[in-house]
Amino acid sequence: MALGNFTKNSVETYLRRHAEELGESMDGAKARASRGWQRFGSFVYWPYRWVIVVPFLGLSSLIMAPVAVGLSTLISPRFVSRRIAPLWARANSFVTPMWVDVRGREKLVAGQSYVVVANHLSHYDIYVLYGWLGLDVKWVMKKELERVPLVRWVSRCMGHISIDRGDTKGAVAALNRAKASIRPGTSVIFFPEGTRSGDGQLGVFKKGAFRFAHDLGLPILPVTIKGTRKILAKGSTELMPGRAILVIHDPVDVSTYGAEALGAIVNRARNTIRAELEDDA
């Protein structure tokens, strides 16, 4: 502890003196030092990223896809969702590396189905939810992903739900067909923003997830994901190691709301996630 305080005080003293010499604020000196360390870290990590991480992510998916399809057929999609997919997600997170902290797991009830609504910052959100949420899940995914043969093959075998965001009637029909396949203990994950956030801000929530939950009488489970945008932002190839946080909030019992109060459920879930994100900021 004493050594840690000494080191921290030494850094503070150096930054303060350097800031005075340059005529800038202490906050400015800290920000400049932080950017310097980020550039240094990116330079050091660059060969590991392209030689180890990226090939591993691709190879793990190529290997696990036929395994997932085979086990879904021979055993069950639930087995793959609870055992194989978390293994794939955690292996990729470990190699990146991404460390994940989970808060609120005690709020989950064993055997309960939920409609999970989460904010969406990065492709790494998939690893966080598959690896650490601990539920048998079906994903609601945009239809464009089915253009990737590997994704289409696995998602159909595991019963994930594909919707066309540009076809409202078709999306509703797809969700209605999916309702019959939701077994007790199976949860459905939605990203109600519809896509990843480009700037880290929480977008407007679409109502499909909440209507789905209301029609089936399932509780809404808001979850907040933090930190993944710093690992891999939308539209970027600058993959970096980092720490993510998964916050599981109190489930929302939709049976206490009438069908006409759908907007209130949407606002409650979005405000819960927004408050968590703002608290972190």
Characterize the structure shown.
This protein has 281 residues and is α/β, with parallel strands linked by helices. The chain has one domain: Glycerol-3-phosphate (1)-acyltransferase (3-Layer(aba) Sandwich). The protein has helices at residues 2-22, 26-74, 77-95, 124-132, 149-158, 168-179, 208-216, 228-231, 262-280; strands spanning 98-103, 115-118, 136-142, 161-163, 186-190, 220-226, 242-248. A seven-stranded mixed β-sheet has the order 1-7-6-2-5-3-4, sandwiched between helices.
In short:
The protein has 281 residues and is an alpha/beta fold. Helices cover 54% and strands 14% of the residues.
CATH topology: Glycerol-3-phosphate (1)-acyltransferase
Which bin fits the share of residues in helices?
40-55%
What is the average per-residue confidence, as pLDDT, rounded to a whole number? 86
Low-confidence stretches: 1-8
Query: Which CATH-level-2 architecture?
Result: 3-Layer(aba) Sandwich
The CATH class turns out to be Alpha Beta
Main β sheet profile:
7 strands, mixed
The coarse silhouette is: globular
Going by CATH, what is the homologous superfamily? Glycerol-3-phosphate (1)-acyltransferase
Query: In angstroms, what is the radius of gyration?
Result: 21 Å
What is the helix/strand order? HHHEEHEHEHEHEHEH
**What's the domain count?**
1
In the sheet with the most strands, the strands line up as 1-7-6-2-5-3-4
Number of strands: 7
Q: What is the terminal separation in angstroms?
A: 27 Å
SS-derived structural category: alpha/beta
Task: Count the DSSP helices.
Answer: 9
Kindly estimate the percentage of residues that lie in beta strands according to DSSP. Answer: 5-15%
